[in-house]
Amino acid sequence: MRATALAAEFGTPLLVYCRETVLARARAYACVDPDTLVVYGTKAFPNVALLRLLGADGLGADVSTLGELEFARRAGLSGERLVFHGNNKSDAELQAAAQTGALVVLDALEEIERARTAGVRSVLIRLTPGIEAETHRAIRTAHEQSKFGLPPDEAVAAVAEARAASLDVAGLHVHIGSQLTRADESVLAIERMVDVARTCAGWEPRVFNIGGGLGVRHTLGEKVPAIEDFAGELVRHVRARWPQPVRLILEPGRSLIGQAGFMLYEIGAVKGTTAAIDGGMSDNPRPQLYGARYEALLASRADEKAAATYRIAGKHCESGDVLIEAVDLPEPKRGDLLAVPATGGYTLSMASNYNGVPRPAAVLVTDGHVQLIRQRETVADLLRFEPPNQG
Q1: d(CA 294, CA 323)
Q2: Omega before 13 within 30 of 0, i.e. cis
Q3: What is the pLDDT of residue 178?
Q4: SS3 state of residue 244
Q5: DSSP state of 376
Q6: Neighbouring residues of 304: CB distance < 8 A, sequence distance ≥ 6
Q7: Which residues pair with residue 18 across a beta bridge?
Q8: pLDDT at 146 over 90
């Protein structure tokens, strides 16, 4: 279906997903190792339709809050395919994870007794290996000052304490960050995880959860390894370093859905070489948070040659609300449609209602068929949260 038809039917901004791309990337992970459980990192975009699509293909879900757990449950995912994370789980979250039968990743020593009291049975211990991933600092998760997990000595102690508390310690977990463009640091993290496993007296893991984090290519100049190469290297390294039988878990999020989605905007005011769109930091805050960069094209005039380099600004009351600093385009005009590729992950999931702007709709497209998977919010939706009798 043409972008103009999508915009006419569903409005803009609009997040558009390709169903076949999502499934192709999920199957690329599944083909790396048939005995590996692949769980979708729900935080990339919690959505029942996407979770159901991935679940039907054999994937599970990585969740970290009551909200993400409920998305997975409504998508029909059962406990044996759920991994529950979180660096500050509430008692209610631990109880819900226990009731669902999810595998719980313990993140702190004090969580052990609380998990036992909540009825949790099977757990992993999250290791913080002290590794600086080559990515933006805000999305590194395994360095020494990370809020996540336990350093090696405490992880060894956690295994012993959790077993003494009658918890089934199934294995270890490690994840070093997001938007990774090479496997080197992840391989080193696996080395340290294996070292921790060998240090634990009288215990052998049945599960190694080696996380996710593979990036996607947002600009023409970026280089990102293929799923098969990145995940394949990690799996091969685990199998070589730990020859005993062990089940692996992978937790991709962005790399499953990032390239499968694009944002569609309508261009409004054009001032010289700055073109404003009808969205911005409320539907995609990543440029402001992480310095993320994107490409774009005029979807309504894609066959025209570029006329100049333009800046794409958002509509919000912030000078920093700039989606793209520089992109070559035909001369944009009010009413043109701008498509921004590789925006399927961590856009709507991090969206806000800044300036009272309702969040966009999302659709899933395949072979000319369009499924609405998230309704567009309205101003009336925002006002529902205001107490009554206030004018």
Answers
A1: 8
A2: yes
A3: 74
A4: coil
A5: P
A6: 298, 330
A7: 365
A8: no
